[in-house]
Amino acid sequence: MLNGYIRSDRIVDAERLFAEMPVKNVVSWNTMVDGYMQNGMVDKAFEVFDEMPERNVVSWNTMLTALVQCGRVEDARALFDKMPKRDVISWTAMVTGLAKNGRVDEARKVFARMPERNVVSWNAMITGYAQNMKLDEAFDLFERMPTRDLSSWNGMITGFIQNGELRRAERLFNEMPCKNVVSWTTMITGYVQSEQSEEALKIFAKMLAEDRVKPNEGTFVSVLSACSNLAGLVEGQEVHQTIVKTVYRRNEIVVSALINMYSKCGELNIARRMFDDGLISQRDVVSWNGMIAAYAHHGCGEDAISLFKKMSDLRFKPNDATYVALLSACSHSGMLEEGLRYFDELVRDKSIQVRDDHYACLVDLYSRAGKLKEAFEFIVQLGIKPSVSVWEALLAGCHVHGDVILGKLVAKKILDTEPENAGTYMLLSNIYASKGKWRNAAKVRLKMKDKGLKKQPGCSWIEVENKVHVFVVGAKSHSHSNLIYPILHELHAKMRKAGNISNTNYLEEEEEDLIS
Questions:
Q1: Which residues of 361-394 are buried (b: 16+ CB within 10 A; e: fewer)?
Q2: pLDDT tens track for 64-121
Q3: CB 513 within 8 A of CB 506
Q4: Cys-Cys with 124: which of 32, 96, 216, 510 at CB 3.0–4.6 Å?
Q5: Helices then strands, each counted (H, E), the chain
Q6: pTM listed for this prediction
């Protein structure tokens, strides 16, 4: 009964029952200590632990593990040193706690003192090294392991990916004698994080060919992210068809990923239909955020605001991500007054921490509306050092509105923090050129060249009749480039005439950028 109450998160009932128990043994006491720990009531657990008439090694391990999990390493170490008897679980918990808190050298000393080790102990030490960016030490231990389980392989692969060593992760993945869903999902996520979404889709296809391995929630979210990055509607629809046949078809996080995928692929109506088809009771704030962000992505500010109001009416509490999406929607739709009103609402809501993303959205909102002075004054009065993304939002506004003086000042702020930021040099050069300051523009480009900086060329692709056509800025390798470029010149002339771009010669060298 005690255990049942705890498992049902009825800790008050568990307390009452524990107090009423006519006889308590060590298992009863351990269960109550564990119950408090599961509910984050560490001090209360300590009180019960101290009152215990007798303790066994499980009592000590329960307390030790809980202290480690909540980051109280010093208390855990003191408890560990007092233990009259330790088993392999005690030692492993201590190794894990020290490593998780950055004290990996101390963890290694404890690991070296262990009278006996099991595979969990080895995995804990390897993960500790990987989390603290000591990959060589982690891999050395991995190779010395007397026996390995799937967690050993998955932990090492995760360590490589988290530290940007994707190729080493690939090699180890290919050597695995047996793979589970975690192994495949880790590799798919690694490719997506490294902006190799095509490879992620290939790995997913191989995974599906393995009959005994079934994708889980994490797999679907990662592979849908790959489809979103590629704007691969056909691939996304194929993944959707796979999801429909699983228990994850109504999973809130997976549905949000589907909404995001369809939105990024330009199918906003399908995204909204998917959102509306879901039961309100099954929606969470992630689902609402995904749909609001979809409207923001397509510049549908009024739809985003309408959905936000509906969300509030249905008693769903917005979080920090909700306001990022909402402010972005207002910015992309030129809805300055509405955006300012929602930013004030965010600041007044003390339960949500205002982040750099919110500041960047507000600066972007001002900048797109041509209120560059207000944007700059807002940044100055923040009272904290703004992130590069905040300054970049203002620099983009200076570029659009041709403000050379402010643009130069903002570019300096960015380059003081990121001197190798090629995009900043390019924007500053373009700002000078838009005002006919060719010498200044040339100086910036020359400085960029001297530093060996190159802006990665823009790239885009479209799919026509099951064939993908890729376009890169400045490239003329496409088979129809002789037809494409005259149309680009014509579009460029119309845009210039309509006042969408400045009437300056510098754009001629950039006009290929219209492709993407």
A1: bbbbbbbbbebbebbbebbeeeeeebebebbbbb
A2: 888 887 778 888 888 888 888 888 988 888 888 888 888 888 889 988 888 888 899 8
A3: no
A4: 96
A5: 30, 2
A6: 0.74
